[in-house]
Structure formats: C-alpha cells, structure tokens
Write a structure and sequence with these properties.
Layout (H helix, E strand, L loop, with lengths): L11 H8 L4 H23 L1 H29 L7 E4 L5 E5 L6 H11 L5 E7 L16 E7 L20 H17 L1 H8 L3 H10 L9 E6 L5 E11 L2 E10 L2 H53 L15 H50 L3 H37 L3 E4 H15 L6 E4 L7 E4 L1 H18 L5 E7 L7 E7 L34 H11 L3 E8 L5 E11 L2
Parallel strand pairs: 9-11
Antiparallel strand pairs: 1-2, 3-4, 3-7, 5-6, 6-7, 8-10, 11-12, 12-14, 13-14
Helix pairs in contact: 1-8, 2-8, 8-9, 9-10, 10-13, 12-13
Length: 573
C-alpha cells in the first residue's frame, strides 16, 4: 500500500446514505401525512356537535316523560288529607286550608300501574313548605320516591373471561387508560361544566320556573351519585298555581353512545392510516429514491474526480417535474465540471509544451555557448537566449492572466457598459500611442450610446486583443477599422466588427486561431511577442458574457482576399 493511501478522506456521505435502511425523507413524508390524520382523529373523537345533538335529543325525551309524570301525579297523587278548616271571627268554618304535599301511596300506585314502558330514573320530591332562599339545600330531605324504570327487554350477552377483565391484564389497563384519556382530554371542558351542576340547583330552578313558559321546569347535564353523566329534567307538579312536588327524570348512556361513535370512527382512521402509508411509499418511490440515487451519484462523481475516474448522473429529465429539473441541472453541472477538468488538463499540457520549446532552445544555446570560440557565434547565441527568455516571459504573463480569468469573471460584478464610449476610449488610446510604421486604428464614435451588462475591463481586453492581432497582420501604414452595429427590433444583439488589411486567414484556420497557443504568424514578425493566448482569452470572455465571436475573410468583387474580419456579437441591455 502506498503511504498516501492512508490519508484518503473517509466516505462519510456515501456510507451514511447506503447504511440507512429507511430514508429520512420517507419518515418525514409519513409523519407529515399522519399529522393531518391525527388532527382529524382528535377532532372526530371530540364529536362535540354529535354529543350536543345527542344531549338535546335525550333532554327532549326525558322532558316529555317528566311532564307526563307531573301532569298525572298532579291529578292522582295530591294529598288532601292534611286539609284543615279556616274559621271566621265567630269561629265558624269558612274555607279549607290544605298543605302542598303528595300522597306516597298514590305515587306508588301510579308507578305500579302504568310506567312499564318508560326507561330511566324517576324521582319524586315533595315541595318545600318554607320561604327560604334557596328553598332546597339537601334534595334527600324532600325525596318521596326513587324509581328506576326499564323497558321490558331481556338482553343476553356473554361475559368475558375473568382473566381478561382483571385489573392485572395489560389489555384491560390499556383500554381503561385510553378511556380515561378520552374522557379527560377529549371532553374535559364539557365534563368539568357538568361536575359543577347539582340536583339541588336543578330543583330550585324548577321551583322558580314560570308556569307559562313553553319548556316547563329546568334541565341540566350533570353527574349522578354514581359518577355517571346523565341528562336530567325537573318539572314542578302543579295544580293551578300551587306546587305540590317535583318530578325529576334523568337518563344516562350519553358517554356510552359517544364512545360507540368514537369506536365507529376508528376503522375509517385505520383505512386512512393505510392510505397514508401507501401514499408515503409512493412518494418515497417517486421522490426520495430518485433523490437518493442523485445523491449517491454525486458522491461517486466526487470520488471519481479524486481518483481521476468518471461517473454518470441518472437521467430523470423525462419526469417533467422538479426532480427532473434537478437531474438535468446535476448532469449539466457534472458535464461542466468534467469539461473544466479536461480544459485544465489540456491547458496544463499546452503550457508544458509551450514552455518546453524555449527551454530546450535556451539549453541548446547555452551548451553551444560553452564550446563557441568566435565572438560572432557567441553574440548570435546570446541573442537566441534573450529572445527565448523574452518569449518565456510573455508566455508566463499570458498564462497567468488566462488562469485567473475565470475567477475574475465570476467574482467581478456586472454593470451597464456603454460599448460605443468604450470603443472610442480604446481607439483614442491607440491613436495617441501609435508609432509611424504601425497600422492606424480608425473608429467613428458618433451615435447614441449602446449599453450591455458586463465587465468593462474584460470587454476592453477582448477588443484590445482583436486590435493588437489586426495591427500585427496589417502592413506598415495600414489601417484597422472598427464598426459598431447597434441592436435592431429584429435582432436584439449588437455587433462589434474589427477589420484589418492583412493577408487574411487560411480557410482551415478560421476556427483554429481561437485555440490556445496557436501562433502562426506572418514572416517578419518579432519572435516571442505573441503567446497564442490572446484570441483564446477573447473567446472565453465573450462566451462568459453570453455572446459569440468568429473570424472571416473580407473579399472584393472578384473574390480576392482584402483582409481578415473579427465579429463579436453580444446581447444588449
């Protein structure tokens, strides 16, 4: 094993993804689906509307029963045995005064004869004979009869085994715990309100109720002595305006019916849970798994780059959704990374080749210089060394500029650039610094400003490279002309054209001239003054601005080449 192999980074990402059996995104999807179901279940278990409707139905039934009891007892069970005559001033009987009470014997007779079809608990209370407020403080003091009425029906049901109903049984404890939870938390406010109500308050409200009100008596939902939630109605037993007693009818079973309604909801909740699981698995298959495949592929790309390999990103572009877009973006990004790696490798190879040539020449010249005797030969060899050193200096400068170009283009902000003014400034600079034997630069700066979004210094480098290239191919005293074609309604791009009067470009080299280190120069050019990177850098900058650059030859009417032309097309602002 190589010494450097032990220092390779550990594969945290890929191992972390492949070692987990269940996707974390799957768990999030399942939980997100179940949150809505749980909220729906909690709301359904509350069944507030159903419970209130049930309570009202119970109260209506009990009210009718209590009113019927009160009407019958007012006619058949009023106790008149306690009536005493009222005497006038001469001690002669004038009228009879009777106590407002019920006959216990008549009350029992009524229950024994006619009430086998009613269901529930019925209590008969005597009316208080005092004017205290409240008149009833303890209902048991006025209780005359307490009867539990049931329908004539025998229900046979098998009892569960003793061990299943034992308090030590786990299922029993779970059931009781769930029932306690539902009672306390699902209907807590309703039960607390019912716990504050008492039979005494209901009886006093019934005594104070108006005999002319359509709903006679008083109603309440409260707990009885056994802790059972009951719907209760108390109706006064009246004859004319006198109150002889109170009938209280109550019926339970509210919690049992509500519990049955809750249990009826549970199968649907189970089906909803199954649907949630299936939909989660479907979402996992269509979302989580493709994302995991993309993540694993991205890890392989990273590892492949580290070991000089190549991996492919799965293609989900046919999905036509966000994952498809992500797949396409990752594939394009991977292709760009590989293209950049290949460009760097190719650039490094080209740099090595270009630097090797002058170094080889310098080495040969120095070796020959050691054995050269004639001064003329030694001077010639020194000139060769100086030219190769100048060429290396130019190469290293241009290579450094090219290597920094991408980072500078990505880092520097884009702004609105007036191309007409930029070209005018560049042309003025060449006019002021030009020498006699060099080609002149001509540019007509008249016209309205033409703007685009870009990097002014980088675009200036493009045009300077094109002008320098055109001047190097133009004859002494020649002219380099620059034209600006503004955008039109049909073509929203602008064009900058640079023409020279040189020999033109060989047809097979119209594209090669934009390659790095292409240095085919005309005879007589100064050796080492051109690195072959200027046009390559110009194309790189133009492409980064969303434009294109190409070269072509200018010809006259007979087809003869009059010079070369470079065209830069850029999107306008």
């Amino acid at each position: 094993m190589k010494a450097g192999a032990a220092k390779r980074p550990r594969r945290f990402s890929s191992l972390g993804r492949t070692s987990v059996a269940v996707s974390r995104l799957t768990l999030r999807i399942v939980l997100a689906n179940f949150i809505g179901l749980v909220i729906l279940l909690v709301g359904s278990l509350g069944v507030t509307q159903y419970r209130d409707g049930l309570v009202q139905a119970k109260l209506q039934g009990v009210r009718a029963q209590a009113q019927l009891f009160a009407d019958v007892l007012a006619q058949a069970a009023v106790d008149e045995s306690g009536c005493q005559p009222a005497l006038d001033d001469e001690n002669r009987p004038e009228t009879m005064i009777c106590g407002h009470s019920l006959s216990e014997r008549d009350v029992n007779e009524v229950f024994n004869r006619v009430w086998d079809s009613f269901e529930g608990r019925v209590r008969i209370f005597n009316a208080p004979q005092t004017n205290e407020t409240p008149p009833i403080k303890d209902a048991s003091e006025f209780l005359l009869d307490d009867v539990m009425l049931r329908e004539d029906e025998i229900v046979v049901a098998p009892l569960p085994p003793v061990e299943e109903a034992s308090a030590d049984n786990a299922f029993w404890r779970i059931t009781r715990g769930a029932e306690s939870f539902l009672k306390r938390f699902m209907t807590g406010a309703f039960r607390r309100e019912a716990a504050r109500r008492t039979i005494e308050a209901e009886l006093n409200a019934a005594l104070a109720s108006s005999p002319f009100a359509p709903p006679r008596g008083a109603t309440s939902v409260r707990f009885n002595e056994d802790g059972e939630l009951v719907a209760s109605v108390s109706v006064p037993i009246r004859r004319v305006q006198a109150i002889y007693g109170i009938v209280t009818a109550e019926i339970g079973g509210i919690e049992e019916v509500v519990a049955d309604a809750r249990l009826a909801i549970l199968p649907f909740f189970g089906l909803a849970c199954a649907a949630a699981v299936l939909s989660s698995l479907l979402l996992t298959a269509t979302i989580a798994q493709p994302i995991r495949q993309l993540a694993v592929a991205a890890d392989k790309v990273r590892e492949g780059i580290a070991v000089a390999g190549r991996a492919r990103i799965p293609d989900f572009s046919q999905r036509k959704d966000e994952i498809g877009e992500l797949s396409t973006s990752l594939r394009m990004m991977t292709q760009a990374i590989y293209a950049r790696i290949e460009a760097i490798e190719s650039f490094a190879a080209d740099v090595s080749h270009e630097l090797k040539n002058p170094l080889t020449s310098i080495r040969s010249a120095t070796e020959t210089l050691e054995i050269a005797v004639k001064p003329e030969a030694r001077e010639k060899l020194m000139q060769v060394i100086k030219k190769d050193v100048a060429r290396m200096d130019r190469l290293i400068t241009d290579i450094s500029n090219a290597s920094r170009l991408d980072a500078e283009l990505a880092r520097e902000a884009r702004e609105a650039v007036d191309i007409r003014k930029l070209l005018s400034d560049i042309a003025d600079l060449y006019r002021m610094t030009g020498k006699e034997n060099e080609a002149r630069v001509h540019y007509d700066a008249s016209g309205a400003p033409v703007y685009l979004f870009g990097n002014a210094s980088a675009l200036g480098q493009v045009f300077r490279n094109l002008i320098d290239n055109a001047r190097s191919f133009s004859p002494p005293g020649g002219e380099v002309r620059i034209y600006l074609a503004p955008p039109t309604e049909r073509h929203r791009s602008l064009q900058v054209i640079v023409d020279d009067e040189g020999p033109g470009i060989p047809p097979d080299a119209l594209e090669k001239i934009f390659s790095r280190f292409y240095t085919k120069r005309p005879q007589g050019s100064a050796f080492g003054n051109n690195s072959g990177l200027g046009l390559a850098i110009s194309r790189q900058i133009v492409v980064s601005h969303g434009g294109v650059i190409w070269a072509e030859n200018r010809t006259d009417e007979l087809g003869a080449v009059k010079g070369a032309r470079f065209v830069v097309e850029l999107p306008s602002a």
